[in-house]
Amino acid sequence: MSSKPWGGRFNERTDISVEAFTSSIQVDKRLYPYDIEGSVAHCRMLAKVGVLTDEESETIVDGLFQIKRELDQDQFDFDDSMEDIHMHIEARLLQLVGKTAQKLHTARSRNDQVALDVRMFLRDATGRIVDGLTALRQTLVDLAEQHTDTVMPGYTHLQRAQPVLLAHHWMAYYEMFTRDAERFDDCLKRTNVMPLGAAALAGTTHPIDRQYTAELLNFPVVTANSLDTVSDRDFIMEFLAAASICMVHFSRLAEELVLWSSTEFSFIQLADAFSTGSSIMPQKKNPDIPELIRGKTGRVVGDLVALITLMKSLPLAYNRDMQEDKPPLFDAVDTVQACIDIVVKMLPTIRVGTETMRRAATRGFLNATDMADYLVGRGMPFRKAHAVVGQAVAHALEQGKELHELTLKELETFSKLIKDDLFDALTLAQMISRRQSAGGTAGDQVRGAIAAAKQRLAQAGAPEAKPKNTKASMR
Predict the structure, then answer these.
(1) Which CATH number fits domain 362-455: 1.10.40.30, 1.10.10.10, 1.20.1200.10, 1.20.1740.10?
(2) Is 157 a catalytic residue?
(3) Is 168 a catalytic residue?
(4) pTM score, two decimals?
(5) Domain residues of the chain, as ranges?
(6) Most buried one in 83, 197, 277, 346, CB count within 10 A?
(7) Distance from C-alpha of 213 to C-alpha of 471, rounded to nearest angstrom
(8) Which position among 157, 279, 313, 437 bears the catalytic label?
(9) Which among 175, 146, 137 is positioned nearest to 352, based on CA atoms?
(10) CA neighbours within 13 Å on the CB side: how many for 203?
(11) If DSSP codes are grouped into helix, strand and coil, which group holds residue 317?
């Protein structure tokens, strides 16, 4: 007879190669705090409904906390033959408290047990990520506040387009990461649902109290369908989708830091503490941190694709394929958190070449649109104004000049509407200050956006997703 917890109907021992192949303990052992919390809550619920006596419940709970201490102190032995963290804890509990331990698994399955562990893990992880994004957003606001007078070229197609404030550029990333935080907060609502009590797939015949278990574990609601509870991982897919979008934003920021720190741009210098060198070229200072962030983005997007592919054709309910949900989840959580932490430390150390940025904003005909707007203001249709300015740009290119370096006489050949006051409209100060449309780069608009962001961050306080102590974990 097999010695496995499920071995009653088996006559042969499991082959050792099967044990190694099916074992997930090296991956899911990090779930042990949640597995123990969930077991404590389940045990207390069983005592409340009379399935366990109070004495049995306290014996089991004492044993579970002893196991947690062993795990916390790395004094716990792991064995592939016991497959996963649930079976490890159950086997150790049997050693500690004897046959009473065998009653703990009443009215639950590893199917709803692992769903609980993962939801609790992801609830805490989401809270930490949202908190990290709050710190990142504050960092971006601080940078913006330092550069409300720093002018730089804005780009489209990586070609100089129109001048903007560097503060406006930083605040664009603030908006992106704000939406990311909102996405994580929103998917938390579908993660923070208590699955325990669904058992294997059909519920249980025992008189359990799922609401009481949910209360002990700080879940606001319980799952509505036992089949759905154990057979879907859409809450993880949703998290990974949010994580992938967030990492795309990190990657775009990283790409700009790589470009800006190059000699060709020279807009910024990365601190030595956040750069590396070359093993052969002594002069090199490489932006390895931003480059690694770009690379890690592919990992997180891959984690999303891996889980979607894993789940796409599984019949209801639980299938062993779903054991593979945890590697991509854990990888994405760790990667996003690591990127947040390093960027929050790196960004404040960046040195900005303000004069280099300003000089770049004066070259490349960035005031062409403003010249067209000037002509529109004098009654010329925009499409005609666009053509006129295009002709002026072509002439300036032939002369090796910028538009504002042409003489009034030269400019008048393109339109009699052009007067001497055009030159004021073509200055950096005017180009910035006149963009007063809501969300524009005018100084007043940018300072208003910074003030609103600071107020929002101050009001945020403790994000909704912040992890909470559960009643089940209190002694």
Answers:
(1) 1.10.40.30
(2) yes
(3) no
(4) 0.92
(5) 14-106, 125-201+227-359, 362-455
(6) 197
(7) 10
(8) 157
(9) 146
(10) 11
(11) coil
